[in-house]
Specification:
heterodimer; A: 402 residues; alpha+beta; six-stranded antiparallel β-sheet; four-stranded antiparallel β-sheet; B: alpha/beta; seven-stranded mixed β-sheet
């Protein structure tokens, strides 16, 4: 589960990381009010930041042409204009896809005079099965690009999960990043806070990009988390009701939200051949063979190991809600699941939805003959297939001849 | 005849009285697996299906029955504790079927098991099976949730991160008349026990395994690690299939570990590494069995 920037910053603040003062708001009036209070207490600039679950906001473009999902403002009027251009509007960035995301909240934040931009992240290292803290002096940039082009610019600290990040490790990383002297204490404190947020929130990623050195009005330097991103481990949300309450379903695709209600795993893709499969690996393999056979998969859909009749029916409704779908391939390897039960579920769903699109069904496994017979005798136009390749070829051909 | 387990392996089941544990334990007993004990805290003294004694703790179960392998079906919130309990009791192998264990729990488990003799398979895996020579491959050792009858005793080792995709591969082999020495599902989570490489090495050292079928998917670097070892040490024919050529980056494809992040973990990179190591790649999932069969000629 992903969090918004303002939520991530609230969490980091709770764990003791220095975060710029900010308020998240949902209306233009609230935005102006928050900005006026900051300006009245001496702020030179305030920043208006669109809150969506995607990066690249600063360089993003709104539907209608307004440029920049992050705006630096010097007075309340500029804040009003920026917030009015953002709230309720669709922002397209390099991470959102062409459909963009609607901005429903903006973060009004105290502006900072940035002297240096760095990168800090805590994440899982799959190879060692340990957390790793990553830091780089190349902050504010696309860290994936830095990792590919100049991997030597990324410093890593491996953490023993039984001990957690140790203070000396944080000091060493800070020092190696050039955050010595007066900055050593605040920088290492920020790292320890980021690590604690990662561990105690069961996060899969805590990223501060950029982590900045800012200069105050008197020329004094400080460390600040200027932007933050936190992703949470969905498997651990059961023990974090407070974090689960931060979920924003508006940021998730509606069909994926609907699928999760039925314990189905659905991801929408760009093609026109829908598939319904039991098991994640087999579902991926089914998408692949559709592609190899000259088609394009419309989705990933894993109905799980013990899908019942209701779940199969829900899966069909979700598949058919995608207007690009022109044909359906069902691929079930009934190991423990019985093929006749699956066949009954498919037939019920076909009748319930009044399916007009071509449907190819490939069943294998327990009670397969009974399952195939049910489909054959149903009088419904279900195309039977007897192997994975046969199924893919049949659905691609059926869709092409429509 | 196999790696890790055979027909004489003495097995205990953690979570034997739960719905999933009970269902699959019955299937495994029918297959011929030697399940000698169950553990459900608070239900010690009961008997499962009239033949398997249930204990409150793993150490009691081990002391009373001599079990050496445990299989874990307990719910995700309690699974890490269950694995640690079996490691503490000094079992040789823990097979964790449970899906949905928080990654933080698994990081602690992996760290705690470092230096112990107990090996871990899974979590979020179908388990492992050494097929027997009876009808429908019964008489072997089935530890997990895979359907027994699709297997056939033989000399090909199968290792995979997936459940049903493994069944598909095994079924293709069996349909071609090719039997299996042992089939192992290592699981789809980002942090687990046995890796592809660990299992590939065991198959290389097993005199009764002649060839290996390896099934991978997007995410992580487990397939690349195995490829690097195979490039230097391969002595047996290996065929592979990697799922997820069409998977979009940044999206978790069902399995918690099946995700392309930062351009890493793509199917094409894994396929290239395996090809470079002399591994035959199945061009599509319908050709897994035939790709392996071609290597045996």
């Amino acid at each position: 589960m992903n969090l918004h920037e303002y939520q991530a910053k609230d969490l980091l603040r709770q764990f003791g990381a220095p975060v710029p003062h900010g308020v998240s708001v949902a209306t233009v009036e609230e935005a102006v009010g928050a900005a006026e209070r900051m300006l009245a207490s001496g702020a030179a600039v305030v920043v208006v930041k669109s809150q969506i679950h995607a990066g690249g906001r600063g360089k993003g473009v709104f539907e209608g042409g307004y440029r920049g999902g992050v705006q630096i403002c010097r007075n309340a009027e500029e804040v009003r204009r920026a917030a009015a251009h953002m709230l309720g509007c669709r922002l397209v960035t390099r991470q959102t896809g062409p459909e963009g995301r609607i901005v429903r909240r903006v973060l009004i934040e105290l502006g900072s005079k940035v002297v240096r931009e760095l990168y800090l992240a805590v994440l899982l290292d799959r190879g060692s099965a340990r957390p790793v803290v990553m830091g780089s002096e190349a902050g504010g940039m696309d860290i994936e690009e830095v990792a590919v082009k100049t991997p030597e610019k990324i410093l890593r600290v491996d953490v023993d999960p039984l001990l957690g990040l140790q203070a000396f490790q944080a000091r060493r990383l800070a020092s190696e990043l050039g955050l010595g002297g007066d900055l050593l204490a605040p920088a290492s404190k920020t790292m320890l806070a980021a690590y604690r947020a990662f561990w105690e929130c069961d996060a899969s990623l805590v990223e501060i990009n950029p982590l900045v050195v800012a200069e105050g009005p008197g020329g004094e330097a400080s460390v600040l988390a200027l932007d933050a991103k936190i992703n949470l481990d969905a498997n651990a949300l059961g023990r974090h009701p407070d974090l689960l309450a931060m979920r924003d379903p508006e940021e998730e695709a509606p069909l994926e939200v609907e699928a999760s209600k039925h314990h189905l795993n659905y991801i929408k893709l760009d093609g026109n051949i829908a598939c319904m499969v039991n098991g994640a690996g087999l579902a991926m393999a089914t998408m692949d063979i559709i592609k190899v056979s000259g088609g394009a998969p419309a989705n990933f859909l894993d109905v799980g190991g013990g899908a019942n009749r209701d779940q199969v029916a829900a899966a069909f409704r979700i598949i058919l809600a995608d207007p690009h779908v022109e044909g359906i391939l069902v691929n079930i390897f009934g190991g423990i699941m019985r093929c006749d039960v699956i066949a009954e579920g498919i037939l019920a769903a076909v009748q319930e939805t009044g399916l007009k699109l071509p449907l190819v069904v490939r069943l294998e496994g327990t009670n397969v003959e009974a399952g195939r017979k049910l489909l054959r005798d149903s009088g419904l136009s279900v195309i039977a297939a007897d192997s994975l390749a046969d199924a893919a070829q049949k659905i691609v051909a059926a869709v092409k001849s429509r | 005849m196999s790696i890790l387990v055979d027909a004489s392996t003495r097995i205990l089941v953690q979570g034997i009285t739960g719905k999933t544990g009970a269902f699959h334990t019955k299937q495994c007993l029918d297959y011929g697996a030697k399940i000698v004990a169950g553990v459900t805290p608070g239900k010690g003294g009961e008997t499962f299906e009239g033949r398997v004694p249930v204990f409150d703790t793993v150490s009691e179960a081990v002391a009373a029955t001599g079990a050496t392998v445990s299989v874990v079906y307990v719910p995700p919130a309690f699974a890490a504790d269950a694995i640690l309990e079996s490691a503490d009791a000094g079992l040789d192998l823990v097979v964790c079927i449970t899906e949905g264990i928080p990654i933080r729990d698994m990081m602690r488990v992996r760290r705690s098991m470092t230096g112990r003799k107990t090996r871990l398979l899974g979590p979020n895996c179908p388990g492992l099976i050494t097929p027997g020579r009876g009808p429908n491959s019964t008489g072997g050792c089935k530890i997990g949730i895979m359907p027994g009858y699709i297997h056939r005793a033989g000399r090909v080792g199968v290792v995979s991160r997936s459940g049903t995709l493994t069944y598909e591969a095994v079924w293709q082999l069996t349909s071609l008349g090719i039997g299996q020495s042992t089939c192992i599902g290592i699981g789809g989570d980002p942090v687990g026990g046995f890796s592809h490489l660990d299992v590939v090495r065991l198959f290389h050292d097993d005199p009764e395994t002649d060839a290996i079928l390896m099934i991978g998917e997007i995410g992580g670097a487990g397939e690349e690690d195995a490829a690097a070892w195979l490039k230097a040490h391969r002595r047996k024919p290996v065929a592979a299939f990697i799922a997820g050529v069409t998977a979009p980056p940044g999206r978790r494809m069902g399995h918690a570990g099946a995700i392309i992040t930062g351009g890493k973990g793509t199917a094409s990179a894994k396929i290239a590494a395996l090809k470079d190591a002399g591994v035959a790649i199945a061009p599509n999932p319908s050709e897994m069995g035939r790709t392996l069969a071609a290597l045996l000629k």
